[in-house]
């Protein structure tokens, strides 16, 4: 009896897992994030007969944030057979796993290796192997520390510029005093360093700019809410929330709402977020948030045109291409912006 | 809660025992002492920590606000997890490290149910209670999966639950086609924020309800006794007519229920989910709560109220650290120092030493006279 029960339950779980796996294989848009390199979605092995360009795409975990989900989906939608590619995808937030997979892909002789490195260092051997094997490397979304000659192009976000744009916008608001709750992302990540850097510089330069608190919420909404709640509970005055991504800004806003503190266009507290989520842009449009710094996740098209050019024999005009980015503020944002840039 | 809960006096009181020794022998000594210390520290450093005021939230409802309310509110998920984790620890002598990941699964299922196939839904596509029940059911299945591996295949709990720890968040993402659903219907957020017209955060009620349910279950059923006897000696329990495997499985399924309720509170707070960040590392806090409660992590005798107090201590500590603006990067280190102190103090070896130390001078004094 118990044996049967245990068998049934085990089978049930195994089948449930298998079912999940089956689905993910069918539609490229929702492939499993942890798919190991040994079971690629498509076999890349340099088949030139088919006329398809083989690419290996190494990205971070699509569940990390709304930004990454959009980024990953765009890459998967672009690099399909219909667009002339035979693509293998790999997602992991662990740089060591990414490196191992990259080496595997180079051995499989992909034509192009598209890379969004989880860390900026440790890629030297991959870059050298790629050069030796004739695989061309294109970086997207994130930079890595290497000589420019090691990759053919980089289509990346300019994080320090994003931070600077946001801080300049905040300075232009002309408040007599800036008491800022600064909620940081994962410490040491490209996005955190860029977005924190600009604000840190301003706060240390201006006497009227102060941090009420500066804490990392590690991109987590619940932690951001707790941090904001604790400032509210302590009774310290504040008038700016500078959250380094939209999820954390939403967490902070939840704490404001619970305490009945007004925010947004006509509110007491300025709310600022980053990335490209549609719901966040809608919040700015509604005026419940003041600002969202766009971090454009859609690099797939630019990467695609670079590859097509390279195949045709033209090298890209610039090595490092920054994706067009801007800040949206409640006063000027339009529905068209939301539809164009929201993901 | 903390004053009404007394461990049944199993020890024979000896008149020559010092009060200190009797106190330290109590299982609840450490969590109560830690809580008292934290309360004292805050009282001395800044009594305004305990100020509770009534504010009006953005919907125009009067709500209670203050650090104490925040602690009680934010500890909810952890307290509920700690209850289930205590039972699992007691019966199987190991811990379930997949609770954070299965919380993501439960939350994802609930959101999938109420959002239907829409990514951003403005109305509930299904009665909330039904969605939560489905979430609980799915979570129980995953609990049963873990429990089966532990009870019938005799795999170490930490290794068995490592499977879900690794795969859980990906499964949660699959359930929603790798999209991040958002539920805008205000009634979905009642469970994580406030019910209209009620100034106390709803998670506090849910937690109180869960504690009440487990109090009744432990009082009126043999679950507690059976769990303890299986944890102490599975073989002799079997010889006495119990089914140790079934009881181990049962505790994992019960933990599944706790996980689903905690996951529901968490997604209800914001109406959305971020698979790789939601309830990250909460399993470690849950295990810590069990340890702080003076429960042996190797199983056997347990005190569920110790774990509950332990969970509140952890949240109290976190809130205190935030209040004093401990630099964000240093926060985990501060927490670790306090945790090490508490855990070392709650270790039976140290507690016996402590009791002995108090006794030794007394003996010496006697010798002189």
Mean pLDDT of chain B: 87
What would you say the CATH architecture of chain B is?
A: Orthogonal Bundle
Helix-strand makeup class of chain B? mainly alpha
| Largest sheet features of chain B | 2 strands, antiparallel
Strand content of chain B: under 5%
- Could you give the distance between the termini of chain B? 45 Å
The global form of chain B is globular
- Along the chain, the helix and strand elements of chain A come as HEHEHEHEEHEHEHEHEHEHEEH
Q: Which spans of chain B of ≥5 residues are poorly predicted at pLDDT below 50?
A: 1-10, 364-369
How would the global form of chain A be characterised?
globular
The computed structural class of chain A is alpha/beta
- Helical percent range of chain B? 55-70%
Largest interface: A-B, 60 and 60 residues
Number of helices of chain A: 11
Description:
In chain A, the strands form two sheets. Chain A has a six-stranded parallel beta sheet, sandwiched between helices. A six-stranded mixed beta sheet of chain A has the order 7-6-8-9-10-12, sandwiched between helices. With 343 residues, chain A is an alpha/beta fold. Chain A has two domains: 32-157 and 297-312, Rossmann fold; 159-295 and 328-341, Rossmann fold (3-Layer(aba) Sandwich), CATH 3.40.50. Chain A has helices spanning 2-26, 66-78, 95-107, 124-133, 159-171, 190-205, 221-234, 246-258, 278-286, 300-312, 335-341; strands at 53-59, 85-91, 112-115, 136-141, 153-156, 178-184, 209-216, 240-243, 270-275, 291-294, 320-322, 327-329. In chain A, helix 7 runs parallel beside helix 8 and helix 9 (278-286) runs antiparallel to helix 11. Chain B is mainly α. Chain B has one domain (19-363): ABC transporter involved in vitamin B12 uptake, BtuC. Chain B has helices at 19-25, 29-45, 67-74, 76-92, 99-115, 128-151, 157-175, 202-220, 223-232, 234-239, 244-270, 282-292, 304-323, 331-346, 348-368; strands at residues 53-56, 62-65, 120-121, 182-183. In chain B, strands 1-2 form a two-stranded antiparallel sheet. Chain B has a two-stranded parallel ribbon with strand order 3-4. In chain B, helix 4 (76-92) packs across helix 9 (223-232). The longest helix of chain B has 27 residues, at 244-270. The chains are: A alpha/beta (343), B mainly alpha (369). At the A-B interface, helix 1, helix 2, strand 7, helix 7 and helix 8 of A face helix 3, helix 6, helix 7, helix 11 and helix 13 of B.
């Amino acid at each position: 009896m118990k044996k049967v029960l245990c068998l049934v339950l085990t089978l049930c779980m195994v089948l449930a897992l298998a079912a999940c796996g089956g689905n993910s294989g069918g539609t490229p848009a929702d492939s499993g994030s942890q798919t190991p390199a040994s079971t690629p979605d498509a076999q890349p092995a340099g088949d030139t007969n088919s006329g398809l360009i083989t690419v290996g795409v190494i990205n971070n975990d699509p569940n990390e944030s709304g930004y990454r989900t959009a980024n990953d989906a765009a890459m998967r939608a672009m690099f399909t057979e219909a667009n002339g590619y035979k693509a293998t995808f790999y997602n992991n937030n662990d740089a060591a796993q990414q490196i191992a997979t990259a080496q595997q892909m180079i051995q499989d002789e992909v034509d192009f290796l598209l890379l969004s490195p989880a860390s900026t260092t440790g890629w030297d051997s991959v870059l050298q192997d790629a050069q030796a094997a004739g695989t061309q490397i294109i970086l997207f979304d994130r930079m890595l520390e290497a000589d420019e000659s090691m990759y053919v192009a980089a289509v990346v976000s300019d994080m320090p510029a994003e931070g600077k744009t946001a801080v300049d916008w905040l300075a232009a608001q002309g408040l007599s005093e800036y008491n800022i709750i600064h909620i940081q992302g994962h410490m040491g990540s490209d996005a955190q360093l860029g977005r924190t850097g600009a604000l840190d510089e301003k706060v240390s330069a201006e006497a009227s700019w102060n941090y009420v608190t500066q804490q990392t919420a590690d991109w987590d909404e619940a932690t951001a809410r707790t941090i904001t709640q604790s400032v509210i509970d302590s009774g310290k005055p504040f008038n700016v929330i500078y959250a380094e991504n939209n999820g954390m800004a939403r967490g902070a806003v939840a704490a404001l709402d619970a305490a009945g503190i007004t925010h947004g266009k006509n509110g007491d507290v300025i709310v600022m977020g980053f990335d490209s989520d549609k719901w966040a842009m809608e919040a700015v449009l509604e005026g419940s948030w003041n600002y969202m710094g766009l971090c454009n996740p859609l690099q797939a098209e630019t990467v695609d045109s670079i590859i097509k050019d390279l195949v045709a024999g033209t090298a890209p005009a610039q090595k490092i291409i920054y994706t067009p980015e801007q800040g949206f503020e409640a006063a000027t944002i339009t529905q068209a912006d939301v539809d164009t840039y929201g993901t | 809660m903390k004053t009404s809960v007394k461990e049944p006096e199993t020890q024979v009181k000896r008149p020559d025992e010092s009060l200190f020794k009797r106190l330290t022998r109590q299982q609840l000594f450490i969590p109560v002492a830690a809580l008292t210390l934290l309360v004292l520290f805050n009282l001395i450093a800044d009594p305004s920590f305990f100020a509770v005021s009534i504010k009006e939230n953005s919907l125009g409802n009067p709500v209670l606000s203050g650090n104490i309310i925040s602690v009680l509110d934010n500890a909810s998920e952890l307290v509920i997890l700690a209850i289930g984790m205590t039972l699992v620890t007691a019966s199987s002598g190991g811990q379930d490290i997949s609770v954070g990941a299965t919380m993501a699964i439960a939350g994802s299922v609930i959101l999938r149910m109420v959002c239907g196939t829409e990514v951003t839904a403005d109305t509930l596509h299904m009665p909330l209670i039904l969605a939560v029940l489905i979430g609980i059911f799915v979570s129980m299945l995953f609990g049963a999966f873990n429990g089966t591996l532990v009870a019938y295949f005799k795999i170490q709990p930490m290794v068995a639950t490592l499977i879900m720890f690794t795969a859980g968040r990906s499964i949660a993402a699959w359930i929603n086609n790798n999209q991040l659903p958002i539920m805008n219907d205000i009634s979905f957020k009642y469970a994580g924020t406030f019910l209209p017209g009620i100034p106390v955060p709803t998670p506090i009620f849910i937690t109180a309800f869960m504690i009440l349910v487990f109090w009744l279950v432990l009082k009126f059923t043999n679950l507690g006794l059976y769990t303890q006897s299986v944890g102490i000696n599975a073989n002799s329990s079997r010889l006495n007519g119990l089914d140790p495997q079934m009881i181990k499985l049962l505790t994992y399924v019960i933990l599944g229920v706790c996980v689903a309720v905690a996951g529901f509170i968490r997604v209800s707070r914001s109406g959305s989910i971020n698979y790789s960040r939601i309830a990250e590392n909460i399993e470690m806090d849950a295990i810590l709560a069990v340890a702080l409660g003076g429960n042996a992590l190797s199983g056997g005798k347990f005190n569920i109220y110790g774990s509950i107090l332990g969970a509140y201590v952890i949240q109290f500590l976190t809130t205190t650290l935030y209040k004093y603006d401990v630099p964000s990067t240093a926060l985990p280190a501060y927490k670790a120092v306090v945790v090490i102190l508490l855990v070392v103090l709650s270790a039976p070896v140290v507690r016996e030493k402590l009791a002995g130390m108090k006794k030794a001078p007394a003996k010496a004094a006697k010798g002189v006279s």
